[in-house]
Amino acid sequence: MIVLAIDTALDFCAAAVFDAGTRTMIAHETLEMKRGHAEALMPLIARVMKASGLRYLDLDRVAVTTGPGSFTGLRVGISAARGIGLAADKPVIGLTTLSAYVAPLVAEQQEQPIIAAIDARHDHVYFQVVAGNGSALMRPAVAPIEDTFVASRFGALRMVGNAARILADRWPRNAPAPAFIDPRPGPDIAWVAWIGAATEPDAAPAKPFYLRPPDAKPKAGFSPPDARS
């Protein structure tokens, strides 16, 4: 199965063409950026597709991160994925940024639970806790950093995400120390593709996964075209 993966949820613009059947990364590119996803994404996808030697019609599906993350970045990535899927008549799979973060740790088949944490600013994080086998222990949420400490009841956690170091530095001294800390700034685009290949399209629509409203709100009386999303 050939998957085009797209990730614009955080401070990156990334795309990859991945062969899930052979577990081969055919082509990929990642640009680090805090702004400018809208201008960068489509040229980046075009370069990745050219490097892969494949046509859009050769794809089996498109996978895209749906959040939590940058509101603007998410809409750019999801819109691109939907457009490509519609034009090529391919299913589009949406997956959360948190699930993409935990996937490689779940694949290690270790017993320790995992907490994925993304910086939500203002001393808050988006987070999720799963068991070593990937089953949910705490559902995705946004909360003050101190509220994540309750996850210490599951034992020594493996921490991953761009807020992993923030959590580790503030973790209570009377709680089990983190078993592992991976403060990577974004999920591995290969795992975005891999999850996309393994997920049923009907179970994972490509729509924004927001855990809180945007910080910036439109002026009174102004309604943007996508206000109902």
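The above is record 1. Record 2 follows with the same two-line structure.
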Amino acid sequence: MAAGPDFARFDRRHYPMVTVREGYDAWAPTYEESVEDIMDVALLERIGSVAWDRVERAADLGCGSGRTGAWLRTRGDFPVDGVDITPAMLERARARGVHDRLVEGDVRHTGLPAGAYDLVVCVLVDEHLPELAGLYREARRLLGRSGSFVVVGIHPFFVMSVGMPTHFDGADAEPVAIETHVHLLSEHVAAAADAGLAAREMHEALVDDAFVQRKPGWQPYRDWPFSYACVWAVA
């Protein structure tokens, strides 16, 4: 499976870059002040092919501070297990209390039981992975004979065009980038097919009035695709 283009070719910010674990550990105290629901939750709400109220058990891969888990709890009374590589983010998710089980681990090797879930979600994670095959294989392993894998991420068009990595303000108020990779949508299709998953639904969020209102500096990017959501089903 061909890899996507190297983010370094598009990087216009040249912020100092740290690993995912190091970055999110440092970002954890202010993370929720930086991430807007319009980036990801709004896309989850547009999904029509998942019967949320009929989900029996969900796995939240890269659960972070528990934002996605909290949203899932509004959709049905089903248990949600979360996995994240960052201890500080898991502490915040634990304090939030929306997950039934929290595991420190890699989203590609979660240690969760095979075939135990009919819904797997992974939100704002894929840009931190050097390749996608492992993520899709793990999602398929976790799903039973049927079920859905929902992926929400930053749109590759935006990452390449703006040349901006995932970043936050460090302790000295200077920007720090977290390891960022570019994955074309064709890579997702290939990784899903290899794992035995088929496309069911896709949405793209554009930088619109609501985005610009929250982030006025994004006016030059109006109508550019910022994020996407894909739903994959067991083939």
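The domain at 7-217 is CATH 3.40.50.150 (Rossmann fold).
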